[in-house]
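Q: Predict the assembly, please.
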Amino acid sequence: MGGAPYSFEIEIPRRYFDVGLSASSGQMFRWKQTANSEWVGANGKHWFRVRVLDGREAYRVESSGPPTVFQSLFRLDWDAADVTETLTRLGPELEPYLQAMPGLRLTRSGDAVETFFSFLCSANNHISRITGMVNHLAAYGPRLEVVDVIDLHRFPRVATLAKVEEAELREKGFGYRAATITQIARELESRGGEAYLRSLGAMPYERAQIELLGFKGIGRKLADCIALFGLDHTEAVPIDTHIWQAATRLYFPHWQGTALTDRKYEEASAFIRNRFGRLAGWAQQALFYENVVNWRTRK
DNA sequence: ATTTGACCTGGGCGT
DNA sequence: GACTACAGGTCAAAT
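A: Predicted assembly structure:
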């Protein structure tokens, strides 16, 4: 396609920022690696194309947005060396997990609506199918650009999604989530749509959590994912099957192999949150993705 | 307060 | 190649 509106370099060591790892670790679902190993993706109203500069600790980024958008998305305003050092001081048990995932960063979505609907797709599902579903939803938004044959769309607004029929999503393979997604889209619109969602980012984590739990179809786990990845509540600790495995291994050995109940969810999540504070979400991401990568061989 | 069963679909792995 | 288990869970009903 024609020249990108913005083209800039980001200079940072790979151990502090691995763009592919950060983009494909289950925090966002609209990034792809191209044949020539560039990373191309979209978030909210922006698209990005990222390539590693030969022999240098730097990236060349083309984007619809200025550097600040990219920097915010990958949370480059947080110093990874500092975060890692603080995390290992607060929890030495984290060190092997952080070392196993060098360059993995906690991201910060620029679009709460996209994150909200992305994680509605994630319940009892696996990353590859979530990816397909999120990209189906994204196709309801206007096309931004085509980069290396990859169709990049602006993620649709709430009003658009609220008009989608359940049957339509069923046909696209959404399964039973077709019903919850269309219902929740309408509920979200009636609560004020995007403005309401954004307001959850401005209120304390605990209150945002309660608001999100008011949607039928959003439980603790999804509420925490939305809070963490979409509303910048970085102290949120979603407990999914992977974090549950890690948490029982590290902190609650007497619960290993047991089912996750409401009470245990609350205790495990609060424990990690109290241990790492506003860095808890970053810790969670390292524990999560290390377990995703290694869980098959571990058991 | 915990446990159980139902729920769409499609990679992936072992038989 | 069919089978089966399971995946970034949630809800309602039955212990």
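The first strand of chain A starts at residue 6 and ends at 11. Chain A has 15 helices and seven strands.
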